[in-house]
Amino acid sequence: MRWFWVVLLLMLPAVFGVTIHGTVYDFGLNKLPNSVVEINSSPRQQMVAKDGTYSFNVVPGAYELHAWNNKTDSEVEENLVANVEGDYVLDLILLPNIEADEEFFADTEAPIEELVKAKPSFYWLIWVVVFAVLGYLVYKVSRKPEKVTEKVKEVIREIKEVAISEELQKVMEFIEKEGGRTTQKDIRKQFPHSEAKISLMIDELEAKGLIKKIKKGRGNLILRV
Questions:
Q1: Per-residue pLDDT of the chain in tens (225 residues, 90 and over written 9)
Q2: Predicted TM-score of the model (pTM)
Q3: I want to staple 182 with a disulfide (CB 3.0 to 4.6 A). Which of 77, 148, 151, 178 is the partner?
Q4: Strands across the sheet with 181-183, in order?
Q5: How far apart are CA 195 and CA 19, in angstroms?
């Protein structure tokens, strides 16, 4: 019987012609040991990457790999098509686990149509001031290009922030307070608005080039640009 298992192990490379392996990293690209990696082979395989590396032997096909680390509360899912026999390297970068708050959609304060309200009547005046200042800066820069400094760039950035509403400024202040990186879920908890309105505010900040929104699972990472 022992010889049967030895022969079976020797035959595995012939049966499973595809090797999928790689390294598991955290969001800062540091090797993340003791992570669990799972592949939807038949039968499904799972292993603990104790030193941060993993490896699976499978037959050719399309696969989904799921990796997570309970200590850092992070995970990732990746797809890989391995139709030809051989070695396939797939490194896995685990991202913070952001779960969508299901009650966001249960306590929506008002329909989307009611949230898209007309801008205040004085809003046009703000833009007139903004364009006037930008025009002056462009004029000065064109006259003396050698004086284009980081100070001018900082002034232009400040002008962009002045042009946003008071509510959006508060959201930007919260993002800065969190070190320039937070989640849409945390912003929702901080401000007394519905999920729909928070989404509209974040979209407006992204359109103005002040933040970057990264989709993660069923939630969003919000990064200060």
A1: 555 554 544 454 445 589 999 999 998 889 999 999 999 999 999 999 999 999 999 999 999 999 999 998 999 999 999 999 999 999 999 988 765 444 444 444 545 444 444 445 555 667 777 777 777 776 665 655 444 566 656 655 665 555 567 888 888 889 898 988 998 888 888 888 888 888 888 888 888 888 888 887 778 889 987
A2: 0.41
A3: 178
A4: 181-183, 219-224, 211-216
A5: 44
Residue with tokens 């002045």: 162
Residue 196 identity: A
Structure tokens at 122: 């004085």
